[in-house]
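Tokenised fold entry reproduced for absentees:

. . .
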Amino acid sequence: SGSPLPEATAGSGADSVTLWPLVHACGPTWLSSEVCSFRVWAPHGEGVAVEIQDSEGGEIRNVPLTREGDFWSGESACKPGIRYRIAMGSSWNDCFNQEGARLFRRDPCARECDFNSAWCILHPPMRPLPPFDAPKFNEMIIYELHIGSFVTAEEERRAFAATTSKLDYIAGLGFNCIQFMPTAEFGGIWGYNSRQLLASHGPWGSAAEMRTMVERAHSLGLAVLFDVVLNHGSSKMNVLWNWDGFGPDNCGGIYFEGEKDTPWGKRFAFHKAEVQDYLKQACRTWIEEYGVDGLRFDSVHNMPWWLLQQLTHGIKERYPKVILIAEITPESPSVIGDAGFHSCWLHATHFDSVKIMKGCDGGDNPRSRMKMLKNMVSPHGFGNIGGVHSVLGSHDQIGDRHGGKDENGKHRYYVSRLGGKGNWHARAQCRVWFAFQNCCKGLPMTFMGSETLQEDWWHVDEHHRFNWGLAQGGDPSAAEFRALVAASNKLRLSQAGLTRDELKWVHEDEGNTILAFMRWTEENAALCIVHLGEGQWENDSYAVNTCWGGGKQWKLALNTQAKEFGGWDGSGTPDPKADDSGKIHINIPKWSMLVYVSSS
């Protein structure tokens, strides 16, 4: 994804040539270092022009555009950083009473905007990206974060730059991929109310600072995924509404007419070729101009299936190294096999773990408990990279917008579901689930704050944003959990079998909720043993079949009950040797995940 783009054949300073030409693409395009062309879609526009201002409050220069069917275009001498906006009359002006005969609009394809006005900021020519070799899809270990609340409240107005300075914290924990919650300009609070699909979120800083953030992530070996919201427009401060004045019967105008409302805003007019290309241009922008390594598509069940196929086919054909992840309700393998995504968010793994911990909805039944566990290890129908797991919860399960009252208080950090950071059992149980997730098929994902045992819920307010005191301070429980996270992430990447397709069930103890399974390559095997219960076996009194041959020597590579993580000395058996039948005889501590490794 970070591979350099071919140079433009135009003069020096022109934009690099796109790999994905789109007939209806709009916005500014640099023809040289000093001349920029502008194109807008305004079928009802009259006398459309670009107004250019060299600096805020300065003289405004008017550049008339020429009509080409439903589009208008023209060019002008320009410099990067100047302010511009679109001015027009309208042949069907439903905005006359509020705005008068002359309408002032943002460019829907601007890369940066003044948040509180129609002025846009002209970005510099697109330059080739520094090369970056992203982790293979199956080796991605994802850290999900919300930029505005990952930083302190004082840093939020320069959140892109502040986040850039903190990325080494994530790399230091052994994650190799970051999924940023939406970065395109939005009108709500979490990012899922997009106002401009191609523009960076101005209250967090400039587009250049956002690009620097991506480049810094790459320099640390971190792949970058952007979260794109293409299913609806913003319900708040929607700058595309009645864009060229047309908007009879509150239809929303050219970007929304003929579509239905959702609880979050009106769906885009997916049936229009111009809107389809607008959504494609958004994806193209993040990939080509920012070098992102993947896109997570929000709520794709609110988009037409044929359009999803168009998007995934177009991206895969031109950017084969970019991973495409869908969020869909209900979760279905068809979003991979038919709609064309590589992977799908699996909320079910989180909810099944809660059922097991709370003993509800089948979690109190030994047989169904074991079935849930096995389906987390190998989700039915989803293949090796097909599912993104967040057993401890994603922003959807941890975030709460209403003072901790969403779904009667069910939205919480995982440790708070189990008794809080001060509870020994809660800490041990969180360790088990984190390490278990790293042994499963699929792509493991952790939401910010989970790795420090942050409590209560996440939100953007002062008291529920990311707690840097736990991340960098002297809290012993947080330090132990961070150590476990780093060790487990390191093990996942050092044992290739944990990221490959091979899997075999070797031991099932329903009564004690102990499951053992093998992940392997031709050279090495990883025996993964999860125990979810109070039982305890000492003096090497528990036998586990390995199915890897008799007489093999095994080494304990991870024990979530090791003293360094908050357990105790002697909790595990360090170097068992399999008997003639292939069984190893080991200690099994309460609430533990054990990973043994052996070479062929």
User: Anything to note?
Assistant: The chain is about 25% helix and 20% strand. Residues 1-11 have pLDDT under 50 and may be disordered.
